Amino acid sequence: MANAPRYQQIKDYLDQKIQSREWPPGHKIPTEIELSEQFEVSRMTANKAIKELVNEGYLERTPRLGTFVCNKKAESPLMEIRNIAAEVTSRGHQYSSKVITQKQVKARDDIALRLGVRHDTTVYFTQIVHYENSVPIQLEERWVNPYFAPDYIQQDFTTQTPNEYLMQTCPLSDIEHTVEAILPPPHISALLEITDASPCLLLNRRTWSSTNLISTALLYHPGDKYKLSSRTRVS
């Protein structure tokens, strides 16, 4: 950092405060004058550092009030399936995960219907929290048909995501998505480190490989930290 351009040093300093959440969303950052004095640079240099973070969506300028940390949301494409670990690292952030549950279960009625198996069929179940810079951004609950992915339950999902493993084992051919806004049950809010009154985005997903229905998943996202996007070409 010492050899970086002066504006980059200021930008890195501000970014570290934001990413560590020492400065949470809504926090007012030091003024250009204060930063120029702290780093012994011109006001123009401080302005450049702030301007880049504004353009990247991390800061927001409010006339006559100052510059504030934005509530920047992670974003995923709705019509695609991407590895969440790759998404996080592509933003220059640190990905990590915590496996809560990984076991065989008997498919209850709703899961059996969604997975295309009979009630009480043995299926694989994993529950994993995905983090971006140590902040939970997704709780993944996934049920997998063991007939098509027999080794799923033996995998180490701290070194690869279920999505990554299934994409390699059962190449994706079709996906089904539905999205709804919910208030999370207590066990979900606890794992996502939010309150029961915090809205969530719930993505219901099913995936096929050829004609085989491989998995069904419930993906919970804190509404204030995540958004889903879609782009369609209209001819």
Helix content: 25-40%
CATH superfamily label of the largest domain: Chorismate lyase-like
Within the largest sheet, what's the order of strands? 4-5-6-9-8-7
User: Order of SSEs, N→C?
Assistant: HHHEEEHEHEEHEHEEE
Number of helices: 7
Residue fraction in strands:
25-35%
Q: From the 3D structure, determine the CATH topology of the largest domain.
A: Chorismate lyase
List unreliable stretches of 5+ residues. none
Structural domain tally: 2
Mean pLDDT: 88
Derived structural class: alpha+beta
Radius of gyration of CA atoms, rounded to a whole number? 21 Å
**Which CATH first-tier class of the largest domain would you pick?**
Alpha Beta
The total strand number stands at: 10
Distance between the termini: 48 Å
Q: Name the assembly state.
A: single chain
Keywords: DNA-binding, Transcription, Transcription regulation
Domain HTH gntR-type: 4-72
InterPro entries: Bact_HTH_transcr_reg, Chorismate_lyase_/UTRA_dom_sf, His_ut_repres, Tscrpt_reg_HTH_GntR, UTRA, WH-like_DNA-bd_sf, WH_DNA-bd_sf
Organism: Photobacterium galatheae
